[in-house]
């Protein structure tokens, strides 16, 4: 052990000069500075050099030195031909070349990412400069350049949400709204669609467009002496649709006079509106009907009768029912629906022909609200044959439609019970128990006279119910007579007849 720890520096680096009479040692002159540094490092590194020499001497002196020498030479040969092995923290063995290869791949990936980041940054800078240039061009006086810039904004904001934000921050909205004052149709189309694209999915831009006065400028184009072209009208309808989706814009658009224009576009009396414009107008009216104050402006038009009569169209029925669902939330809206001729037969008929869960849920909601609020509407529903449709809906409809149908049936059942109790119970009892008869003939048989007078004032339905009650009581009396073994030709007395005639509907089995 002591042998392994010995550092034989003298044998490697220092030596005594035999010619030195004083016995002092000196450095060996044949070593260069670099060679001396390597020798010194090998000597002081825990005796590595001496242990190497001692290990070689031990191998030579041992009996199996020849075999040891062969193994050592084989190991040296193998180590010289194979790559060194390195263990990582997980215990996996990897060669130096593999590790260097992975390091090279990582450095390549990092360099590629750095290049891509630089390219992306460069593109963003170029896009920002382009957007600044476009906004500057919209602020100049040249009308052609402004129109070209508006078309460019339309393309930039079509599918890039980041460009919408940046262009709005750079101030693109006010000059676009200002272009609506021009008389050029192409300029109107360019700026309208640019504003439409800037507002897609961006509530701040929608609010900024309305704040800049776009609604009133668009209505000015519509109601100008020169009627706008169908393409301009379609672009304005599309803008109203997008802007009305924001809650804070609903009262502004509704009170501006846009609703009559949208209703006119939907009705298409002059056959100038496209199918897309009609759909956009209906959806915009739905957005505006969400705000309760706009219901008043909707009722000033003839939209409700038009919507009810258009319910047969499967493509728009669900959207129409959505508008009516908002209208029915106000008393004025319910009254407007009730005043439409055949409104309830039309709504009940929707339950019969539609299989759409959305239509079933919406029309059942409309009928449920109206049945809950007004007695006259319940009677109109019963006359329209709603009961059978509701019973079918409770079995085959969606879960929400089933619940709403059940509530309508319950409301109708309670109302029917009250009607039977009040009309056929309380009124008839009052006429029998407290007859008011002032004639001389009534003193002989006041009950009979009052009943005859009452029969004259009864409706046909009440008379039929009274006749059924009398027949039921007479049949019961015959069974009683038969059980008592009385003669079959037994004739009830006049007093019994008067009792049966004055009986009420309380004996009916319901």
Structure description:
With 510 residues, this protein is an all-alpha fold. Helix content is 72%, strand content 2%. Helix 6 (96-138) packs across helix 8. The longest helix has 43 residues, at 96-138. The termini are far apart. Pfam families: ARM_PUB. Keywords: Repeat.
Strand content: under 5%
Q: Which residue ranges are poorly predicted, with pLDDT under 50 across at least 5 consecutive positions? A: 1-31, 46-53, 55-66, 68-83, 426-455, 495-510
Main beta-sheet annotation: 2 strands, antiparallel
What is the arithmetic mean of pLDDT? Answer: 75
Number of helices: 29
Helicity level, as a percent range? over 70%
Domain U-box: 159-400
Organism: Erythroxylum novogranatense
Biased composition (Basic and acidic residues): 90-102
Pfam family, one: ARM_PUB
């Amino acid at each position: 052990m002591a042998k392994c720890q010995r550092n034989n520096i003298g044998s490697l680096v220092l030596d005594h000069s035999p010619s030195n009479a004083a016995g002092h040692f000196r450095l060996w002159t044949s070593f260069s500075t670099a060679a001396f540094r390597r020798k010194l490092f090998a000597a002081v590194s825990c005796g590595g050099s001496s242990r190497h020499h001692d290990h070689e001497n031990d191998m030579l002196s041992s009996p199996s030195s020849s075999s040891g020498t062969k193994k050592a030479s084989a190991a040296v040969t193998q180590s010289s031909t194979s790559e060194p092995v390195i263990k990582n923290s997980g215990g996996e063995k990897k060669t130096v070349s593999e590790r260097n290869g992975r390091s090279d791949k990582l450095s390549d990936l990092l360099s590629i990412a750095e290049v891509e980041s630089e390219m992306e940054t460069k593109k963003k800078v170029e896009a920002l400069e382009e957007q600044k240039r476009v906004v500057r061009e919209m602020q100049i006086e040249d009308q052609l350049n402004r129109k070209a810039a508006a078309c460019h904004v339309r393309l930039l904001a079509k599918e890039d949400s980041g460009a919408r934000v940046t262009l709005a921050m750079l101030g693109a909205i006010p000059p676009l709204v200002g272009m609506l004052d021009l008389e050029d149709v192409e300029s109107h189309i360019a700026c309208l669609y640019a504003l439409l694209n800037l507002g897609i999915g961006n509530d701040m831009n929608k609010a900024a467009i309305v704040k800049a006065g776009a609604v009133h400028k668009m209505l000015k184009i519509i109601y100008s002496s020169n009627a706008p072209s169908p393409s301009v009208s379609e672009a304005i309808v599309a803008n109203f649709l997008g802007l009305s989706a924001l809650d804070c814009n609903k009262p502004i658009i509704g009170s501006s006079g846009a609703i009559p224009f949208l209703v006119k576009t939907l009705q298409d009396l002059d056959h100038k509106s496209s199918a897309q414009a009609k759909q956009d107008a209906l959806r915009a009216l739905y957005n505006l009907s969400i705000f309760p104050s706009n219901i008043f402006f909707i009722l000033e038009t003839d939209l409700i009768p038009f919507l009810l009569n258009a319910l047969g169209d499967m493509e728009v029925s669900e959207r129409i029912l959505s508008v009516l669902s908002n209208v029915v939330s106000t008393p004025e809206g319910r009254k407007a629906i009730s005043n439409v001729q055949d409104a309830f037969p039309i709504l009940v008929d929707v339950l019969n022909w539609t299989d759409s869960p959305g239509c079933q849920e919406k029309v059942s909601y409309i009928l449920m609200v109206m049945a809950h609020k007004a007695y006259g509407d319940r009677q109109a529903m019963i006359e329209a044959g709603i009961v059978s449709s509701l019973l079918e809906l409770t079995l085959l409809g969606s879960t929400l439609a089933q619940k709403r149908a059940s509530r309508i049936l319950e409301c109708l059942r309670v109302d029917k019970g009250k009607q039977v109790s009040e009309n056929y119970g309380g009124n008839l009892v009052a006429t029998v128990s407290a007859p008011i008869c002032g004639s001389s003939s009534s003193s002989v048989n006041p009950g009979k006279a009052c009943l005859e007078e009452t029969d004259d004032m009864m409706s046909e339905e009440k008379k039929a119910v009274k006749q059924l009650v009398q027949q039921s009581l007479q049949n019961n009396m015959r069974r009683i007579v038969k059980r008592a073994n009385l003669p079959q030709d037994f004739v009830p007395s006049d007093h019994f007849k008067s009792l049966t005639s004055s009986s009420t509907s309380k004996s009916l089995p319901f």
